[in-house]
Write a structure and sequence with these properties.
- This protein has 304 residues and is mainly alpha-helical.
- It is built from 12 helices and no strands.
- Helix 8 runs antiparallel to helix 9.
- The relative contact order is 0.12.
Length: 304
Amino acid sequence: MPFFFVTSGYFLKSKLDSGSAGSTIRSSFQKLSSLYLFGIGLYILSVALTTGIALLSGRKPAASLSGLFRNLSPVGVVYYGDAIASPFWFLTALFFAICLVSLFVALGKTRYLLPVAATAHVVGLLGQNYPMIVELSIPTRDALFFGFFYVALGFWIRSTQWTPSTNRRRMYLGVVIVATIGQVSEQYAVNYLFRGLTISQETYTTEYTIATVILVFALFAYALSNPDWGRGTIAPRLGTLAVGVYLVHFPVFQILKALNGLLVTMSGFNLMSTGVWQVLVTPVVYVLSLVVYVFVGKIGRDRR
């Protein structure tokens, strides 16, 4: 997800150069809000389907339609974006991050953009992973503490017109590998050293770490140093569908879990407990999500 935000900031620079901040924000709102509403609508439909499947199998539904709207708040729906389903948080975070970057551009203060965004990110990072230093009572996986920095980072990279050399691609890849190891190590420390937990007790899920910044920057540099990467393949086309596939994958997986529950009731066989399922679950969910998103998109185009 941080890579997605950096990429968005990278292309945001050219949009702001060719248009006003207001027009860029309006365009972003139209696109992201339509994706947000699409994701929510699809998720509500999946809850209805999984509820029906659970009732057929004699099981208690994992979620109900009434439960979706029980604890809604304007802040959760509009700003945090996770009030109905948590996977949709990144859409609202991206929109408000774009608004913040556009504000700096409109005010002509872009030289302060990255330092301010980095400061907010450090506060959020410390509050999430190192409460012994900074303790925050608010979520930090949002636009201000998370999305703002990575969008600003992508904007800054494009503003500097930095083009990573193809001769250094191996170096960037090496940094990616080292940073990945560093991130895993830091997450282990946050989980089990700083919080005094054991694996059998609890796992604290951290959204981002200090090493994440290095990892994402190096990975983006590696991508820029391979400008012909994927050219002539289906990858660029699939890339344009990535956000839609991400929105669809969560409802698809919930439906698969409900169908597995029905299978267990009817035959006693639990497909999701098998090794084959653990190997195939990712490609299966991806392909099904891709098919559903393309199909829904085709229906939408045919109705116009």
